[in-house]
Specification:
The protein is mainly alpha-helical and 307 residues long. α2 packs across α11.
Length: 307
């Protein structure tokens, strides 16, 4: 069941990417809906958490150590991880940044091996290699596609140090995301409650977003804009980004987080597939992508057979 939850997490985040893209098209001058989506995450996951706790008879054993882990995980992923990813995109473009960001499962696996005591057997190890190979293969294609279809005016005009800064930010994003996913599992070891963990993580992310936007003196304007001109796509994104982390937590409850991370990292590829259907004529699926899909299918199959 853990593999199913991990796949659902990837699919939901992929659908969310497409929904956000449609939201930005509708209102290109917005703040990409970060505040409103994180706020909805807190509300929806809070309600779900209360329902689950109520069904179980309000018998919740609080672990402050787990709360700390869940909060740090939320800051690493939705907070600092997403912020540094967006910053890297401004320096080196989305394709290069996404390709580097696809290395996240490597850092999650290293964290799990060093700090969580997880072990990788031969069969799932081969499956993970196929999945990682597919992800890196597709990331390389994204990079080559951008290089062949862009004028590259910005890149050639920018100092080389900007490229290094962008690369460093993207790599840091991958590392911090990987650590955050590992810390999620650490929190679940201390307190095995996926709904509570997901809610605490999003609450920490909301606090981070508020502080960050206040420092930049954007918070008041973004709040007014979010509620005065409600973008329906961002509302949908708020629902999806509530379910995505929840399914990741549910998956990590039952299988190793190193496996979950690799499967969930299929998100960019699934985004391409969905975009090819919704934005027909704008985005398409190449033979290169089909090779990646095949590699990832067999990799996921090997993991599912073993687990």
């Amino acid at each position: 069941m853990g593999v199913v939850f991990a796949i659902l997490s990837a699919v939901i985040f992929a659908v969310n990417n497409v929904i956000v893209k449609k939201g930005i098209r509708r209102d290109p001058h917005s703040d990409n809906g970060l505040f409103i989506t994180v706020l909805m995450n807190v509300i929806l996951l809070g309600v779900l958490c209360l329902i689950v706790i109520g069904i179980s008879g309000w018998n919740l054993q609080i672990s402050w150590k787990a709360i700390l882990f869940f909060a740090i995980a939320g800051l690493c992923t939705t907070g600092v991880g997403r912020l540094t990813l967006f910053s890297s995109i401004s320096y080196i473009g989305p394709s290069k940044a996404s390709a580097i960001r696809n290395s996240t499962p490597i850092f999650t696996t290293v964290f799990a091996l060093l700090f969580l005591g997880e072990e990788i057997a031969l069969l799932p190890g081969i499956g993970m290699l196929l999945l990682l190979g597919g992800l890196l293969n597709e990331g390389y294609r994204f990079h080559k596609f951008e290089a062949s279809n862009h004028t590259q005016i910005h890149n050639t005009a920018s100092p080389k140090r900007y490229q290094y800064v962008g690369f460093g930010l993207a790599l840091f994003s991958a590392i911090i995301f990987g650590m955050g996913q590992g810390i999620r599992k650490q929190g679940l070891i201390e307190m095995n409650h996926a709904f509570f963990g997901a809610w605490v993580g999003t609450l920490a992310s909301l606090v981070f977003v508020i502080i960050y936007q206040c420092v930049r003196r954007e918070f008041t304007a973004n709040v007014k804009k979010s509620f005065a001109f409600m973008n329906p796509y961002y509302v949908i994104a708020g629902v999806l980004t509530s379910l995505g982390p929840l399914f990741f937590f549910l998956a990590a409850q039952t299988i190793q987080v190193s496996y979950v991370s690799v499967i969930a990292a299929a998100e960019p590829l699934i985004t391409v597939l969905i975009s090819a259907v919704i934005f027909r004529g704008i985005e398409s699926i190449t033979m290169h992508t089909w090779v990646t899909i095949t590699m990832m299918f067999f990799g996921t199959t090997l993991l599912a057979i073993y687990i």
